[in-house]
Here is the input.
Amino acid sequence: MLLQGKKLLITGVLTPQSLAYGIAEHALQQGADILLTGFGRAKSLTERSAKRLKPGLEVLELDVTNPEHFKALTESLKQRWDRVDGVLHGIAYAPDDALGGNFLNTPWESVQTAFRISAFSLKELAVACAPLMPPGGSIVTLDFDNRVAWPIYDWMGVCKAALESTVRYLARDLGPKGIRVNALAAGPLSTMAAKGIPGFKALEAGWGTQAPLGWSAKDSHDMVSRTACALLSDWLPSTTGEMIHVDGGYHAVGAPPVPPESVAGAQPAGTKPPSE
Here is the structure.
């Protein structure tokens, strides 16, 4: 199996609708041993999901805004495992006033919260786990391609752009240790996180029209989960600092297809118009 014997730390699992849940499920099917993280009141949701994934699956406490939790995480992993082969960073959050077209009015306090949880936490998680990762280790973060500005995404988009840059710098610094770091940029998916983004349905509705392979926000979880497991495996040993797209090809096409009827009678390229 693809992940036989691998020891993976997976963050970001809340409910079975979480993308991280699907990745954890596939990782177990592919032979991995996994640990989850959660914190605060939401930890009860993670623990409930853990029971569905596998009886006895442990959930470690991790609040990414608390530096002491990262130190405790390293110690917890040492006690339970002799190494960590892979890490999934599936953590992101932005306050309501940092989304939905409020870009010019968002206060620094909300931006700071979004940045710390959604981007800086990747660096903190990598630093906590890297000492336990052997050569061949893999860190994967869940992303939404932000090389362009999107409607409604606002400061979360800025944070995702920072996340993508963080991936490249981590790849630079951890590469000599044999550790790979990559981002997985999925198309829009029906998750709890998506429900918190104003106007998400409108973005989702047009995605399948432009994506050459099509796209379903409800049915594409499986493809994303399988790609994440491939990145966590040994099958991409020289791939690092990358943003891997699983979006049906949307990112490669500049605009939705033009209906044939709208170009009917158009003058073929390179021909001269008829003379009067």
About this structure: The mean pLDDT is 91. The first helix runs from residue 19 to 29.
